[in-house]
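Marked as duplicate of an earlier ticket. Keeping the data here for the record.
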Amino acid sequence: MSNHASREYNFDGLVGPSHNYAGLSFGNVASFNNVKSTSNPREAALQGLEKMRTLALRGFGQAILPPQARPNLRLLRQIGFGGSDADVIAKAYKAAPEVLACAYSASPMWTANAATVSPGADTADGRTHFTVANLNNKLHRAQEHVQTERTLRAIFRDQAHFAVHAALPQTPAFGDEGAANHIRLCGGHGARGVEVFVYGREEFSRAAPAPVRFPARQTLEASKAVARLHGLEERRTVYLQQDPAVIDAGVFHNDVISVGNADVLFYHEHAFIDERCALDALRGAMRAVDTELRTVRVPAAAVPVRDAVSSYLFNSQLLSKPDGRMALVVPQECRENAAVAHYLDDLMASGGPIDELICFDLRQSMRNGGGPACLRLRVALSDAQAAAMHQGVIMNETLYVRLVAWVNRHYRDRLAPSDLADPQLAIEVNTALAELSTLLGLPDLYEF
């Protein structure tokens, strides 16, 4: 796969009609802080679509991953709630409202957790490989992998170009949170690259450091399993451990403390357990692809970890522009945090590889604990692979207009926790998604 014949697509999660604030994600500070507040699903979806449209108009490869069906009635029936769909919802709301909230979770919108992706330039067989994340640290997320696999197989169905692997075993030893803990560094999207897996703990090493307040969701064992499934070359694969202290400070995924693109790593000084050793390992691996690593290091003195977490500075998209420079896509909160805003002003004046800020209002997603980087799954594709994937999910002006109209027809502008007990909400969601599957040209996407 040659450099000039490849392009990176960002597959953003389309926010579903049941977008709500259940505060289900212990360790995700923003999610926990907004528990049981009222959400606006329509606004959330429109904010996400505006980001997709804007980036597509700028010439960046942009596509969507559709929402998952909600509530997950199969989950509720599996744990003993029976009767009609309305009965199941009513019984769950009365006896186990937290589980009903899990069944209604909007978290699939954060497609950085959908899977880990290795482009054909890195894999042994030249195909683009996807391993669906099992997300087994949280009930509300552990249910996602079934539909995620179905969705990825529908979009990337051509097995001559793509390989979609099922989720790893559903056990803590193989806790896998997908691309949120994965960085790819390279000279260009079509060139051979270095794949970096960032983990929080080792299952089979009791001596390895680990956080004490919040869970480490990604294991070294899971990361190595994904690398094997994808056929990655050992000398171009690096495993780095997150600093346990930052996990305990709310950095539940690596993409809350660092982001990489092409040959640039934008990271906080406390991102990894041993900064010097981490950089040495990365530079050594980059020599295998004849590329020199460029780093943009953010010191704690300029941006304390708490500000990085509250603003989601690193949960940003780092995008390559045609002129070789890079744009940083940040949430509005980065402009509202004094330390972060000051740092970004200095960054823009520094003459470094990042020379443009693109700012979006993503407050509906941010309040639930996900920024720009959470909303997207990066997939580098050759021209032939791009032509082989399902074309109906690629963002363009026509699709944008249709999706906005669809959202305005089907989404509520207010959703309180008590609304999850309304059986009509489930009917509304299924009606909306049935129409969406037709709109996207994926008629068999859902199992209602």
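See parent ticket for discussion. DSSP finds 17 helices and 15 strands in the chain.
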